[in-house]
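Researcher: Structure prediction, please.
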Amino acid sequence: MFLLQRRSLVDRVIQPGVGLLLASLAVTATGCGGSSGAPGSGDDSGARVDARTTTVTDSGASASHRADARRDVDAADAGSAVKDAGRPDVDAGRAPVDAKSTTPDAALDAGATDACPDAAGALILYAIPPPATLDWTSPNSLLNTALESSAAGEALIYSGQAVLSHEIGHVNLELDCGATSIPLTGQTGGGAEWQSGADGVGIMFRDYPGSLNEWDDAIGDNADTVKDIAARQASGNLTQIKFVVNQAMCQRLKDFHDEYVATMAYTSYDGLDRARRFEGAGCAIFGAAFVDVGGLLRRSVFTPVWARWEFVGSARYANTDGTNPFYLYGSNAQALDSSGVSWMWPAGVNLPASQSSPIVPEGSVMDSWTGPEDTPFSIPGVTLTGPLVSAVPFTLYDPAMIEAWAEGVWSLANTAGSAASLGGTWTAQTVKKIHQITYDAHCVMPQTIAFDADNDDLFKDSDAP
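Model: Predicted structure follows.
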C-alpha cells in the first residue's frame, strides 16, 4: 500500500489490475506475494531465469530439450466437464471419464486396511480468499473488483486481522512429517507489474521474479508470512485443508519440494507455468501440485472445482513492455470450450504478441475475453484450429475457488459429521477461529510416475495414459 501511495495515479490504477489479472493464476506479488510488489525488472527477455535450457527460434517458437515437451494441438475429449463446472461444488466427487476404478476411500472400503501403513504426518494447505469478491466476467470487471479487493486488504491489515493483504488470495502449505517436513511455504513473486499496464491480459502471461515464502528474501518474506498465517488463524480469514499421510507420501512430497528448489523453478512466477513440470508457478497451482504429485486426490476431479479457464483473444493482449513479440510458452496454456472439449496450445510454441498496439486499461476491448477485433495468429510452420486460431487458452488455479470449496465441505461435514467430496471423506474441525477440513488419507500410497511426466491435459488425471 505504501508503494502504491508513492506512485502516480496511473500507476495506482494499473498495479492492482496486474495483480488481479494474474489472480487465480496467482502471478503477482500484490496478491500471492503480499501487500506490495517485490523488486524486479518486469522484463521479458525471451529466456527464463531458471536455466531450463529453453531455446528461442527466429519464428518465436521455443523448444525445451526436456523429453516431456510433447503436446500437439488437438481437441481432447474432456468427458462431461464444462466451463461452469469450475465453480465450487462439494458434490464434485463424481467419477470423471478417465478416473481410476477406485477412489482412495474405496480402497479402505474394500478391506485393504491390513496393508495400510501407519499415519506419519500431515500436509496442510492454507487457502486465503481475496478480501473482496473478484468478478471474472471480463478483464475490465476483474480490474475494477481488484481495486476494491486491494482496499479491503489494506483494511484487514489496519484492523490487525492480517499482515499481508493478498488482494487476489493466496495458498500457503506446510508438511509436518518429522525429518521429511517442509516448513510453511508457498510460491510467490512479482515485480514492476505496473510497468506492463499497456499489455492488457498480457500481464498474466509474463514471467516475474519468484521465490518461496519459506525464505526471508525480498520476495519470499517469510517473517511476514508466518505472522500473516497466525493473524488470520486468530481472525478467521483463511481455511485449512489437511491431509493425514503415511511416511511414503511424506517422502514423495518432500522429494518434490526439494527438486522444485534444486531446479530453481521457484524463480519463475508465471500464470502459464505448471509447477510439477518445474516450469515455475503461481501460488494456487503450487499448492495443488502437492496434492497432485502425491495422488491424494484425482486431478480430473479437483481441477474443474479449483480452477478457472478462459480463451484470450489476440486483440486483448500485447507485449509492449517486453523485448520480444511473444510470451514464453507454459504447460497451462489450455482451456475447455463451452462443450467441454479441451484445447491445448502447441507444445513449446511461444504466444505471439503485438509490440505496437498498446491495450488501453478500461478500454472497451477489455469488456470481453474475445471478440470480433481478434485477428488470426500467423506462426511459421504451425497450423492452429478451432478457437486457437485467434485466441490463447489458459487455465489457472484460484485461491478463492479452493477456499470456497473447502468452506462448503466444512459446512456439510460440521452438520453431518463427515462429507464426501473430490473422492475423499472429510471431517470438520475449528482451529482457533478458522475452519479446517481433514481427509485421513494415510492409506493412500503415493503416485509413482516422475513428477514432470504427467498427462498433458490438466483436465485428466496426471497419471492417465
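Model: The longest strand covers residues 119-128.
Researcher: Thanks, that helps.
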